[in-house]
Fold this sequence. Notes:
Blueprint: H1 2-20, E1 41-46, H2 65-71, E2 76-78, E3 87-89, E4 99-101, E5 107-108, E6 119-125, H3 175-184, H4 195-201, H5 205-220, E7 243-247, E8 250-256, H6 262-265, H7 276-282, E9 304-310, E10 314-319, E11 326-327, E12 348-349, E13 354-359, H8 363-372, H9 384-395, H10 397-406, E14 412-414, E15 417-423, H11 436-452, H12 455-462, E16 467-469, E17 493-496, E18 499-502, H13 505-514, E19 530-536, H14 542-553, E20 558-564, H15 566-575, E21 580-586, H16 593-596, H17 605-608, H18 619-628, H19 635-651, E22 654-663, E23 670-671, E24 687-688, H20 690-700, H21 707-748
Parallel strand pairs: 1-13, 19-20, 19-21
Antiparallel strand pairs: 2-3, 4-5, 4-6, 6-8, 7-8, 9-10, 10-13, 11-12, 14-22, 15-21, 15-22, 16-22, 17-18, 23-24
Helix pairs in contact: 1-21, 4-5, 9-10, 11-13, 18-19
Amino acid sequence: MRRWTQAMYAGLGAAVLALAGCSPDTPINSPYPSGAESENTLYSAFTQRSPKYLDPASSYSSDETPYTYNIYEPLYGYHYLKRPYELVPRAAAALATPRYVDAQGNPLPDDAPGEQIAESVYDIPIRPGIQFQPHPVFARDEQGGHVYYPLPPDGLEGRYDIPDFERTGTRELTAHDYVYAIRRLASPRVVSPIYGVMAEHIVGMGDYGKALRTRDAALRKGVPAGQRDLPWLDLREGGFDGVSALDDHTLRIRVIGKYPQFKYWLAMTFMAPIPWEADRFYSQPGMAERNLSLNTWPVGTGPFMLAESRQNERHVLARNPNFRGEPYPCEGEPGDREAGLLDDCGKPMPFLDRVVFSIEKEAIPLQGKFLQGYYDIPQVERGEYGVAFLVASGDSAEKAELYAQRGLQLPTTVATASWYMGFNWKDPVVGQGDTPEQQERNRKLRQAISIAFDWEEYVAIFENSQGQVAQGPVPPGVLGYQGGPEGVNRQVYDLKGGQPVRKSIDEAKRLLAEAGYPGGRDEKTGAPLVLHYDAMGGMGASPQFDWMRRKLAQMGVQLDVRSTDYNRFQDKMRRGVAQIFLWGWGADYPDAENFLFLLYGPNAKADGGGENAANYRSPEFDALFEQMRFLDDGPEKEAVIHKMVAITQRDAPWMFGYFPKSGGAYHQWVGNAKPTQMVRNTLQFMKVDPALRAQRTAEWNSPVWWPLPLLALLLALAIWPAWRTLKRRERQTAFGDAAGRQQSGADKA
């Protein structure tokens, strides 16, 4: 009993001491060491798994972009604040204007017709003085040799991460590093999703890829199948004419024909430099076994470098001490100055010392820690969190008050993406039609459906108003987008007071009757008009389908929903047997061509496996597309885009749907935060106020002390009866022992 009582007191003491150890200014439940909230560090999360590919030749997933675009420097980037998006130099000293030559190599004027241009030659100047991050691949000894190449047999003993290599070095970035990187895109040792596209556009790259496969096969000769350690494939040897270094600071790329959109590929990390030393270093025996490669430990010139990497647990970016510093922009779009986004004009970046990414496998704990202040941004690369918080605040006054108290910044922007509902051009009812008369009837049917299908209501109900209803295929932020009255789709909307107003259902019924379906029935057979919506599994719940049925029922049209799994749906689309479908597209680059090619006839999915899912064909549209794709940005290109949009509005191969909104969620101490889809090197622009963060997290997560006296009282009340019982038994035992001794003495006497 005594031991039990002592344990009770010990438990009470431990609880008191544990809580007493937390000062009133120390946040509880913090996932970081004490004082971390006061450091110049931005905290964010990643979900599910660590990024798979940090090798820029292979990386093409959004969860990898916070690392790759802040560690590496492509030649170009995008202005952080301006919209429409504007290309700016990164490692390049300036944006290069291509020179044009004909098939004989003769120079052509800048305004030469695209079909006459055999090659576009880009001579891109590289900024002098750019240094690679400190890394062991550059470490040299006193004699000038590489410290870590070749490694002795025991050279990797005890080394599992790059920081385990004690010595580092650096060197200047040159044009040769870009040549090496572009050659790597063709390497059979690298899985690059962009090689096929580049082989179509860069002179000689396709043949170079074939030659590399032959060289690789020769190096693998005699190597057991499945062995990870392979002889180094040195890409400094050989090469091809399409990519070359004219000198240390001039890169030449020769592009087949005229391809104005090529400049946007130069802003992607596929075109980031790779030092040959890194490729050779990671090719050494044992590196693959220890998971040491460019996929796990990049080597770049950007503002940050990977300082810590614990797979599926934590990754840390640290300021690159060799980064030259970039001035913060001094221009933006209207409203940026009022939002404080120009306050740091001209100041050198980056502002942060470190960025810490911690794994969160569940959404609820992630959002909870964000609201506690332990994450400054839920996920750097994801744009749906701000939208989700806005929706939640609209649904709950309690949450709206909480978010306001926390001072959350929830800015939104319209994403460079589109959701649309397409009509299959091969379908006899809603498609193109076989005769001029049938084509006209089908067109009126598509227009009637487009009027009846109220996208304003759809966005309000199913997207919580977090989308902009589209008037055409080109989204905001892209050259050629028309806002205001000029861009209104007059086939579906009337203009009243300068604002678009959806045409009445009576107008839709009139068009339906002219299409040959008065009251929703075939005027020849009397059969009801039944349309088929082909849905992929998981694309929408029954409330959406019911809503769609009701909208078409207003005209007397029936809707049959044919829902299948994703694989079956894709098969239908490839064979061109779907009728009406929902599809989406996110831009690879901010050019109208990247959206209008979705309606270009030769790109039909059913005929050629392209991205024209509607299989739309219009000789007029296709001719304008072929003209537009060769035009440089400017008024002429805009005018052609406007004509193309007008054709699609008239023909209605799509119900244009909506452009989804993207939104950021940032705490009040995060500065220079602006949601974006195209700008992926955002971390160098952001800043934090550590003092404000420490103050707020302490306020929001301060220990609650009042339960301690109550806990002590409850424990005392629980112990008191036991204590009294113990004392009573001790007294009884003491009396019994005394009586026993007296009796024993009497017996002896």
